[in-house]
Amino acid sequence: MIAENSSLPKFELSDANGSVVKSSDLKGKKCVIYFYPRDFTPGCTIEADEFSKDYKKFQKAGIEIVGISKDDVESHKKFCDKMKIPYVLLADTKTTVSKLFGVWGKKKFMGREYMGISRSTFLVNENGKIFKVFEKVKAKGHSKEVLEAYSSVK
Description:
InterPro entries: AhpC/TSA, Peroxiredoxin_AhpC-typ, Peroxiredoxin_BCP/PrxQ, Thioredoxin-like_sf, Thioredoxin_domain. By secondary structure, the chain is α+β, with helices and mostly antiparallel strands.
């Protein structure tokens, strides 16, 4: 997994509208990049909903939010429409970016092993440095936790 104080890796992925978003588009901005397993699953729905409810607070603080999962553009579009998600969701269908950040790997659920994305969040400053990493994120309350982490940075 990418460590704190690392530079934001270079990437480009399509958003829910099919537009290409590049990591360089985030240059000079504070941003939250969160990885989540799948659209429409219980934990991911809670996490997306909480970030959506707090979106105005993030905007006021000058912080962009970017969600990334393995789901395709069409799934993201449906998820954004249903959940009224106001921020960008990126489709990492080939898991290239997930692997780059170190969040793609073996997971276990009910005794079954499979490959998937570990729910993780990376906080990036205006200089493109990752200053905080949240591993094994609990969806409930995470948005507030992220806002607090940004407010504690001078």
